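pasting for the record
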Amino acid sequence: MPVVRISDDVFARLQTHAEPLVDSINDVLVKILNTYEEAQQPRSAGATHQNAKFESFLELWPFVIAEYDRTQPRFPTTAAIRDDSYKPIKVGLRHIHYEFAVRKRAQRFDVCLHFEANDLKTNLAWLERVTTHETALRDGIAEEYEAGPWRPGNQWAQLMFRVPFQGNLPDEAAVMRGIELMNILVERSWPALEPLATN
């Protein structure tokens, strides 16, 4: 049997997914791999979703990545998975990216466009390129919408649609709606931002 060395940080993360006195490290790795591999399996046409529930970000993000990339988006995600509440989608612009973000306390799965230059005026100018077309951006979308500065005292700006969910993490239905909204957001906002990529 191979011996694998892992850092203390990774070991601590694995422990959070283990049932004490029952699961071995091997058991936890099997759980994580099963979740990831299941998310990679293509769904047959007409297959019904069972509305999977997720226990951790390490279970959630592989599913989000696989399902999002299955839609053949303009900007695929990276395969890197971290135990974080957000998953950025890079677009080739240093200070601008799309992002999936989980707000546990508010029970929201946010579909975001972030502007993160070191200057609020620049970020708001970039945001305005998109919000100038806000009516078209929001057309047919019932979810709550927000656009503006990140928060008081912060220099960043953002735009987001908020997908509500029940429980600790978004379930499969919330994830699938978030993916649908991300594709719409990219399709409707990127034409206003694309010229920045050539400057």
